[in-house]
Amino acid sequence: VGNSSVLACPFKSNITMVTWKISPNVGGPCTLGYRADTNKTDRTNCSDSMNWKFTPDCNPALEIRQVRIAHEGNYTCEVVATEGNFHKTYNLTVLVPPRLTLYCDDHSNPVCKAAAGKPAAQISWVLESNSTRKEEVHDNGTVTVLSKFAARSSNVTNTTCIVAHPAGNRSESKAC
């Protein structure tokens, strides 16, 4: 989320036409097209965040600026050239890094919260413990995960929560 993404399309010499067909998981389809004989590009129902990376005759790659969850879906590039027709399909999945907080509840138990990540984060604790886990799925497809630490001994003063996620791992420590 928030970064730019570039999807490559097969580049061939003597391109006649290039078409990007985009079918997002949410919302309607969009098409970017280019015809070499008229040197014209066309767009239908595409947001301004989607455009050719350079120029379609030199490089038919698609650039998505400021990627959002709404950009998830199938992206197909079709190239028509004198050598034949070529296709490349991508299934774009957007990763959303969770926001990590570690706090103490009313009973002085550490609680680790990985908020609004996509996919759901995995939470573990440095010390051996019993922990309870709850997940809350949000309408936009993100997931908040809560894990409450329950120490096996009463002399635990500092705890470390580790959040594992495909967008990056983080940890935080706290004394409750």
From TrEMBL:
Q: Where in or outside the cell?
A: Membrane
- Ig-like domain residues are 1-93, 112-176
The annotated topology with respect to the bilayer is: Single-pass membrane protein
| A GO cellular component annotation in the UniProt record | external side of plasma membrane
The record's GO molecular-function terms, alphabetically, read: signaling receptor activity
- What is an annotated GO biological process for this record, any one? regulation of neuroinflammatory response
Report the InterPro entries cross-referenced here: CD200R, CD80_C2-set, Ig-like_dom, Ig-like_dom_sf, Ig-like_fold, Ig_V-set
Coiled-coil regions listed: none
**Keyword entries, A-Z:** Disulfide bond, Glycoprotein, Membrane, Receptor, Transmembrane, Transmembrane helix
Q: Which domain of life is it from?
A: Eukaryota
Q: Which family does it belong to?
A: Belongs to the CD200R family.
State the name under which the record lists this protein: MOR1A protein
Q: Which organism is it from?
A: Mesembrinibis cayennensis
The gene designation is Cd200r1a
